[in-house]
Write a structure and sequence with these properties.
Keywords: DNA-binding, Repressor, Transcription, Transcription regulation, Zinc. By secondary structure, the protein is an alpha+beta fold. It folds into two domains: about 80 residues, Winged helix-like DNA-binding domain superfamily/Winged helix DNA-binding domain (Arc Repressor Mutant, subunit A, Orthogonal Bundle); about 55 residues, 2-Layer Sandwich (Dna Ligase, domain 1), CATH 3.30.1490.190. It contains six helices and five strands, in the order ααααββββαβα. The strands form two sheets. A three-stranded mixed sheet has the order 4-3-5, with no helix packed on it. A hairpin with a 7-residue loop joins strand 1 and strand 2. Helix 1 packs across helix 2, helix 2 crosses helix 4 and helix 3 crosses helix 4. The radius of gyration is 18 Å and the shape is globular. The N and C termini lie far apart (about 40 Å).
Amino acid sequence: MSEVQLKDALDTLKSTGVRITPQRLAILEYMISSMAHPTADDIYRALEPNFPNMSVATVYNNLRVFRESGLVKELPFGDSSSRFDFVTHDHYHIICEDCGKIVDFHYPALDEVEHVASHVTGFQVNSHRMEIYGKCPTCASQTTVN
């Protein structure tokens, strides 16, 4: 986990008047170190041994605070559970249609999409989102074996 990312995130929360509780800190540290795009339930299960009095609702409420502060993005992909991504830079996602695994990737040429869309349509573009779907290497190898 990057100490710089944690310090920056804590500074962001403090600047918006958010109090740093032990639960918030633990959720934030988990989000920064997780590359798995966890659900709120995943985070709850990972932290529950150290925070037995913390509820899933507490995790959801803190993720909402982080989302409103711009630290976390909610990703409503695939299954009915939202996944959460600690935001460090603009990037895209490729999602396995079998197991739901989500992997980040960046492709600089895609940054031009907003400019072109604005130029062609006259829209003022605020953001864009792109997902690519397929089978991860693990699921693809299991398919060929069966």
